[in-house]
Design a protein that fits this description.
Blueprint (H helix, E strand, L loop, with lengths): L6 E2 L6 E2 L2 E4 L9 H13 L4 E3 L15 H13 L6 E6 L1 E2 L2 E2 L3 H15 L4 E6 L8 H14 L2 E7 L3 H14 L4 E5 L9 H12 L2 E2 L26 H5 L7 H15 L3 H10 L7 E3 L4 H8 L8 H11 L8
Parallel strand pairs: 3-4, 3-12, 4-5, 5-8, 8-9, 9-10, 10-11
Antiparallel strand pairs: 1-2, 6-7
């Protein structure tokens, strides 16, 4: 079933699937062969949006950064680029290319293009804010990449609403290409962005593409008080949500809505998120094709008003974090 209704990304000509496949696991917890299978299955199911970063997975002993981009590049070379595929990557966290100075941005984008094997990157993010570099310098550097034809559009990730607004204002004042989307930490357990970032996105026509949509795995429903241990590199942070007073309410609501729709709690959590104001697509990663099945349901599942209200009321506001 691949008749996925694509959504506009900000005020661009890009159209993306409700699920954006996160590439952070490629070259880390998913080897190349498994990564290829996940990518194949994602595309076969109608997905067209893949997200990675030049820093994935520099935190693994023996890795140097760029492993995920390299895997995706080899997949593209082996399969040929699927029609309509939207490819996103990020700069600022690679050990050899830290920060958002103009020189670094220009060097890092070429390294990413080489690893991915593409001439043009569809969406290029400033991965983390860089207080040591003037925003005007970064904004000009990214805009120059668009003018040079090395990237199509600009995104921001892990920037505060104030810094996002300042970047947008600089672009308006100087006639630069402006960011079209923001990647925030946002899910049923982390709703603080609704107070400031969501209104800003609606005001400025930005799309939101939340990461950690499953709260590091907590919203899959696998983590329960007294439950079995889960083998995952994020198990510790996921189980920490059990200390939140909302945890049992949220899990109960997910269970109820999942049973009503005949899907998994993970599918429900991502569907709720995908229908929030300003959200164009939600990021989630899969270490194997079995995990991908629940994620792919977001491309088709639409919750009724009663289900949405139950989840919204039981989760409440709060939370923050970075990827």
């Amino acid at each position: 079933m691949n008749d996925v209704r694509l959504r506009p990304l900000g005020r661009t000509d890009l159209r993306v699937s409700p699920l954006c496949l996160g590439g952070n696991v490629f070259g880390w917890t998913a080897d190349e062969s498994t990564s290829f299978k996940v990518l194949d299955t994602f595309v076969a199911g109608g997905g067209n949006f893949v997200d990675t970063a030049d820093s994935y997975s520099a935190w693994v002993e023996g890795n140097s950064g760029g492993e995920s981009e390299t895997v995706i590049g080899r997949w593209l070379a082996a399969r040929g680029r699927p029609e309509g595929l939207v490819l996103a990557t990020k700069v600022s966290g690679h050990p050899e290319f830290p920060g958002l100075s103009a020189a670094n941005v220009h060097a890092a984008v070429d390294a990413s293009r080489a690893r991915l094997g593409v001439e043009v990157i569809d969406l290029y993010y400033a991965h983390h804010d860089d207080p040591g570099t003037p925003l005007a310098e970064s904004a000009r550097a990214f805009s120059e990449l668009v003018d040079d034809g090395r990237i199509r559009y600009i995104g921001l990730s892990n920037h505060s609403p104030g810094r996002i607004r300042e970047w947008l204002d600089i672009c308006a004042d100087q006639g630069l290409h402006a960011p079209v989307c923001v990647q925030p930490h946002y899910n049923l357990m982390e709703r603080g962005v609704e107070e400031d970032l969501v209104p800003l996105a609606l005001e400025r026509g930005l799309s939101l593409l939340p990461y950690f949509g499953l709260a590091r795995g907590f919203l899959t429903g696998k983590y329960r008080r007294g439950g079995a241990e889960v083998d995952s590199p994020r198990a510790g942070t996921a189980r920490a949500y059990l200390d939140d007073p909302r945890a049992e309410l949220v899990l109960g609501a997910l269970d109820a809505v999942a049973a009503r729709n005949g899907v998994s709690p993970a599918s429900v959590a991502l569907s709720w998120l995908s229908d929030r104001p300003a959200v164009a697509s939600v990021l989630a990663s899969a270490r194997n094709t079995d995990q991908l099945t629940d994620l792919m349901a977001v491309n088709h599942l639409r919750l009724d008003e009663e289900s949405t209200e139950l989840l919204s009321e039981d989760s409440g506001p709060g939370g923050s974090g970075v990827s």
